[in-house]
Amino acid sequence: MRKTWILALVCAAGLSGQSLRQLAEARSVKIGAAVNPMRLNEPAYAETLAREFSQAEPENAMKFGPIHPARDRYNWAPAEAVANFAREHNMALRGHTLVWHQQLAPWVTAGAPSPADLEKILGEHIAAVVGHFAGQVYAWDVVNEAIEKDGSPRKSPWSPVPDYIAKAFRMARAADPKAKLFYNDYDAEGIDAKSDAIYALVKDLKQRGVPIDGVGMQFHITAKPLDTESIAANMKRLTDLGLEVQITELDVRVPLDSSGRPGAADLEAQARVYGQVARTCLKFPRCTAIQTWGVTDKYSWVPGYFKGTGAALLFDREYNPKPAYEAMRAAFGAR
After folding, report:
1. pLDDT tens for residues 100-152?
2. DSSP H or E segment with residue 68
């Protein structure tokens, strides 16, 4: 394994001068990052984002609560900042997310709205948000995390709306007929009860003529070696339906020491996993994007949620590329 890793680094060295973005574009894969618009004024953040990534997605600014804080008011500015940055740097813009059980504005469920009321709220929201960014957002996470780990439907504030998932996709298509529409979820990368349920869901939507174009696999994972055969089998059955697959929220967390730093061995293990993810995606022409959930470890959500871990992204807190970055470049540079 050590010899293989050294060989990968040697190959990566031969790719000097080419950014990750350039190497991925040559393989027809978008490399994206979740973006915090408040950080775009930080030169190192903006420069790294523009140089290394070909796709941008607002980390939180397009979620229901942040973008629609009151029924008669929308907060467009933060998401528009990301859209403007993407346009200025020739990056694709991805939208996240229209229907989710979290980060809703309190007004949505105030007063125990009826199913008809909820459906009207959902329709107004999707029409406004997708319509506002029509022609800018090329792909939307329409429905996010609607399946539980055991494969059962998640109880959601939107659940009272009959067939709300299908209705949301139809609403999104009506608001922007050209945007690609995705179902997005976590802990369903390989074959298991949850991914089986997601497969059944999207297959049913396709069979009923519901407009769905792809499935997003989040990939919030650890540096444990991946079961790439299981992941590839899942990607194959989804792409065999005619759907795209995109890796939408990739981060690979590792343990941190008392000073908040990762160990060298853990960074090497992390790099191997990043390389596995990229190589598995590249096996499938319909795996069209790999997006990390952030730009730099400096602003990653991971340490605040998974205590004692972090350093999950391609660039460290000082914006230095990590071994994971070189592993990704090596994967895209290999032929």
Report:
1. 999 999 999 999 999 999 999 999 999 999 999 999 999 999 999 999 999 99
2. none
Query: What pLDDT does 15 receive?
Result: 56
**Which tokens sit at 9?**
């680094």
The answer to whether the beta carbons of residues 138 and 87 sit under 8 Å apart is no
Average pLDDT over residues 57-69: 98
Looking at the chain, the whole-number percentage of residues with pLDDT higher than 90 is 94
How far apart are alpha carbons 179 and 252 in whole angstroms? 29
Per DSSP bridges, beta strands 214-217 and 180-185 are parallel
Catalytic residue among 52, 57, 119, 145: 145
Phi/psi of residue 17, nearest 5 degrees: 95, -15
CA distance 67 to 61: 6
Active site residue 189: no
Q: For 310-322, what is the mean pLDDT?
A: 98
Q: List, in order of start, the domains of the chain with CATH numbers.
A: 2-333 (3.20.20.80)
The secondary structure of residue 144, as a DSSP letter, is E
Report pTM.
0.94
Residue 111 DSSP label: T
2-13 vs 264-282: helix axis angle to the nearest 10?
A: 70
Concerning whether 249 is annotated as a catalytic residue, the answer is: yes
The answer to whether 4 and 45 are in contact (CB under 8 A) is: no
Look at residue 218 and tell me whether its pLDDT is greater than 50: yes
In the Cβ-directed half-sphere of 252, how many Cα atoms lie within 13 Å? 27
Q: DSSP string covering 161-228, please?
A: STTHHHHHHHHHHHH-TTSEEEEEESS-SSSSHHHHHHHHHHHHHHHTT----EEEE--EEESSPP-H
DSSP state of 109: T
How many Cβ atoms from other residues are within 10 Å of residue 41's Cβ? Answer: 9
Q: Are 252 and 222 in contact (CB under 8 A)?
A: yes
Round to whole Å and give the CA distance between 252 and 209. 36
DSSP 8-state code for residue 312: -
Contact at 8 Å (CB) between 134 and 176?
Answer: yes
